[in-house]
Design a protein that fits this description.
Layout lengths: L6 H10 L17 H11 L4 E8 L7 E7 L5 E7 L5 E7 L5
Antiparallel strand pairs: 1-2, 2-3, 3-4
Amino acid sequence: MKRTFSFAAIAAALALGSVAHAQTAGSTQASISREQAIAIAQKQVPNSRVTETDFENKRKRTSYYEIDLVDAQRSKHEIKVNASTGAILSHEIDHDHDD
């Protein structure tokens, strides 16, 4: 499922509050919203467009949002954002512009 969020929606989500932190380490419950995770990812890749978002809730492992973006040079980025803390877990870049 693909979803695209506008910059206005992200700005509105950020205006509603700051990133909440989990009270326990390794929590599988999301403390940040999908919109907050998108905003965090887009800080890593300015002027990007979101192409897909997923939530991974792994038992006994860190839950995270996987945010796929495309930048102005058409490079694809996959950023994993910790659902409890908002920390960037990984950032992969695919510079191959062929689909």
